[in-house]
Amino acid sequence: MGQSPRSKLSLFVLFFAGILLLIFLNERGFLNSTKNALLTVSVPLQNVSALAADKVNYFGQALWEIKNIKEENEKFSSENLELKGVVSGLEEIKRENDFLRQQLGLEEKPDDVLILAGVIGRDPLTFGRAILIDKGARDGIREKTAVISAGNILVGQIIEVYENSAKVRLLTDISSKVPALTQDSRMDGLIKGDGTASLTMDLISKEKELAVGERAISSGLEGIYPKGLLIGEVEEVFSADNQFFQKAKIKAAVDFQNLESVLVLKKQ
């Protein structure tokens, strides 16, 4: 059942009277002790709440800064990788420029053109005695042209040409034969490959004594190799009384296993 109008009026009168009583007691100072007790309890709670809020704000700011630092580190790492790539490319360009600069000692011939080529592989069928280069018919490469290395050193000749590459037969191949000349004693001979890192100079006249350490160069008699290209040095001399000629073991001037770039002597 609902309350009667008289009961509602009684409650309102009591509520209003209570408010008036609290106002009267507050003005007379009777509630000061109660207010002090409430402040004593509430102030520390407010301080704790404020400190907790500060900690939360600081933690949130720290997380934001960590996120920014991480993003900046990722950006710097990416830029660092790009810079490393640029530096690597510049080093390769410098290496090629140094390589070409070393070739300036080559005797200048107006009919010859030097084509720089990179070594891209080795022919497994020749057991490393032939290499593949990244220049071919499109670049004007032709068969039976000489190939040299840094320092005016003979490497071999072009034996097969493809559209974008070519095969170079090295001096160490057993089918390689180069007319040669000893630089000091001026004795002719024929340098052959024996399938190893060494070369053999055969058909050397016995008119003069051949000295160990003497250089062997191309004589230019065959027509493929220009005269004066360094081949190697005399490492050992073989001469028998019952033979008309003497032989010499030649240490190649170039490391065929570590060739990275070569020059093709293209004739116009």
TrEMBL record:
Q: Which GO terms describe its biological process?
A: regulation of cell shape
Which InterPro entries does the UniProt record give? Cell/Rod_1, Cell/Rod_MreC_2, MreC, MreC_beta-barrel_core
- Entry superkingdom: Bacteria
**Keyword annotations:** Cell shape, Membrane, Transmembrane, Transmembrane helix
One Gene Ontology cellular component annotation held by this UniProt entry: plasma membrane
Q: Where is the Rod shape-determining protein MreC beta-barrel core domain?
A: 119-266
Which residue ranges does UniProt annotate as crossing the membrane? 9-25
What function does this protein fulfil? Answer: Involved in formation and maintenance of cell shape.
Family designation: Belongs to the MreC family.
Protein name as catalogued: Cell shape-determining protein MreC
